[in-house]
Amino acid sequence: MKAIYIIPFLIGLFACAAKKTEAEKKETKVVQRETVIPKFQTILDTADVEGAILIYDLEEDRYYSNDFDWTRKGNLPASTFKITNSIIGLETGVVESDSTLFPWNGEKRRLKLWEQDLIFRDAFHFSCVPCYREIARKIGESKMNEFLEKLEYGDMKVDSSNVDLFWLVGASKISQYQQIDFLQRFYQSKLPISERTEQIMKLMMVIEDSEDYKLSGKTGWSITDDKNNAWFVGYVETQSKAYFFATNLEPKEQFDMDRFPMVRKEVTLKALEAMEIIG
């Protein structure tokens, strides 16, 4: 009689062991996809900033960083959201093309560069906040949330009171991993958007195009409770491979803030050079 009860117990025990083994395999696989690069930390220390550089090798399916805990933290997307805002603007017809004109109304703006009539692609490259607030207002709360859900973009908190500012202030968050996931799906034509929108955006995002590589991306900068947080996200296409990057930084004390707009790109390029992705 005892044997009758022991057999189901043993079967259950072996089943649990098998499940545990499978879970361990999956966990090991994730760990193996992450490689710590101490050189990245040296680059950040030399620049007098805190944060993380995350680089993803698409072909090898492997991530490289100095601090994987930091890469999983969520932060406001700031102007990196202009990639997504542009996509939604084009998909909804709020923006017709990369040459759609945004007239300046003559009001004083934070940057002199924004105090002029701008076509869409220049508004993107000059990171014109007033232009993109206008786009967001025209998209509206309902369509914005609908597309954010379809595009699976971070954890955005959008309502009627913040539809034109939620990426700069408030509770919206996106991590470096989520930035790269979104960019990878965009690059591989896996987003639910038209081919026309994709092609317009891929041209608008190009920062540098040389014989050896093409660099595409967008910077961002938010200030919350006197805390400065900066982004540089994008991808690099070499002759044979594609790499994605998401850099997120905060200045250390005594940092020269005049350098902050440049440092996010500088440290990223140094990391790509250290990986021998660019020369």
Written description of the protein model:
With 279 residues, this protein is of the alpha+beta class. It has one domain: Beta-lactamase, CATH 3.40.710. Helix content is 44%, strand content 21%. The protein is built from nine helices and nine strands. It has helices spanning 2-32, 38-47, 68-71, 81-92, 120-125, 129-151, 176-187, 195-204, 260-274; strands at residues 34-36, 49-57, 62-65, 101-102, 118-119, 206-209, 213-224, 227-238, 242-251. The strands form two sheets. It has a seven-stranded mixed sheet, sandwiched between helices. A hairpin with a 3-residue loop joins strand 8 and strand 9. Helix 2 runs antiparallel to helix 9 and helix 4 crosses helix 6 (129-151). The longest helix is centred in the first third of the chain and has 31 residues, at 2-32. The protein starts with a helix and ends in a 5-residue tail after the last helix.
Keywords for this structure?
about 280 residues; two-stranded antiparallel sheet; alpha+beta; Beta-lactamase; single chain; 7-stranded mixed beta sheet; 9 strands
Strand order of the largest sheet: 1-3-2-9-8-7-6
* Amount of beta strand: 15-25%
Class of secondary structure makeup: alpha+beta
Using DSSP, what is the number of strands? 9
**Apparent shape:** globular
Q: H/E series, N to C?
A: HEHEEHHEEHHHHEEEEH
Biggest sheet descriptor: 7 strands, mixed
Count of DSSP H/I helices = 9
pLDDT averaged residue by residue = 91
Top CATH class:
Alpha Beta
Cα separation of the termini? 74 Å
What's the CATH architecture name? 3-Layer(aba) Sandwich
> In terms of per-residue confidence, which ranges show pLDDT below 50 for 5 or more consecutive residues?
1-11, 13-31
**Full CATH superfamily name:** DD-peptidase/beta-lactamase superfamily
Supply the number of structural domains.
1
Helix content: 40-55%
What radius of gyration results from the CA coordinates? 22 Å
What do we call the CATH topology?
Beta-lactamase
